[in-house]
Write a sequence for this structure.
């Protein structure tokens, strides 16, 4: 356990500046666009200007969901940037050890502990980064709501719930699901995706040039298995399967892919990657 915690701490320490940079970019993009949009509309209302005079819609009352909708591009862009960086880092987290100074991966593999600990520590680090960004976005939404109430006079605004604000944009609705089942479903698929990426990287590292084909083929097969129950559910002409059965098949497919990917990853680390 002590070795595992040290490895997790090492991975977090390596990524800390990138994670902090993503948080800063998200903060500046969302808060900056929110302040600019709100002040522009509040100024127009205080001056009694009409929509024709200012060139944009002026609502009778302002709400926090309205502010998010009108700045949604600058809300979405940093979120998509963060998702892209984290997905790419799911691969880089392995490759940086191979291509780093003095091939650092060999030193890690020679540690006096089971090699699966290295796999689990990297997976834990990725999940820590993801949920850190989610927690930061939650805190940021609360702060942005307070900022909205500070800038907009009470007579110009209507109060709204946090749920309304977080579901007004599909991206936020996906990242911050209202129901626990939806949370498990969305982030469960994300975790499976990271595990499949890990296994694909280890296939490529184990078999090199031929491993690239193995990695692509394995990833495509995993996607096909996971999507197959969805495809059955979309075929409305075929009423043989009930929705509950489709859900059960999807759950079984996800569990199967997870178990196979983790076991294959452990086996590759133990048997195929030698030092």
């Amino acid at each position: 356990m002590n070795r595992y915690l040290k490895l997790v701490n090492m991975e977090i320490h390596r990524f800390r500046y990138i994670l902090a940079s993503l948080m800063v970019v998200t903060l500046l993009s969302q808060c900056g666009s929110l302040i600019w949009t709100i002040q522009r509309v509040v100024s127009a209302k205080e001056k009694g200007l009409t929509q024709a005079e200012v060139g944009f819609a002026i609502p009778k009352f302002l709400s926090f969901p309205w502010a998010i909708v009108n700045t949604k591009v600058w809300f979405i862009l940093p979120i998509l940037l963060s998702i892209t960086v984290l997905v790419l880092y799911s691969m880089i987290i392995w490759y940086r050890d191979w291509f780093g100074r003095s091939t650092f991966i060999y030193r890690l593999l020679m540690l006096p502990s089971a090699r699966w600990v290295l796999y689990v520590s990297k997976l834990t680090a990725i999940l820590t980064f993801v949920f850190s960004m989610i927690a930061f976005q939650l805190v940021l939404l609360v702060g942005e709501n307070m900022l909205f109430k500070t800038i907009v006079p009470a007579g110009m605004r209507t109060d709204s719930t946090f749920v309304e604000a977080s579901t007004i944009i599909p991206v936020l609705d996906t990242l911050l699901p209202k129901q626990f089942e939806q949370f498990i479903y969305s982030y469960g698929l994300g975790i499976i995706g990271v595990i499949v990426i890990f296994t694909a990287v280890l296939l490529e590292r184990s078999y090199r040039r031929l491993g690239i084909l193995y990695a692509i083929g394995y990833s495509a097969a995993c996607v096909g298995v996971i999507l197959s129950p969805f495809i059955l559910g979309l075929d409305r002409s075929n009423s043989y399967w009930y929705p509950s059965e489709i859900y059960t098949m999807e759950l079984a497919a996800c569990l199967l892919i997870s178990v196979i990917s983790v076991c294959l990853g452990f086996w590759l680390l133990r048997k195929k990657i030698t030092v």
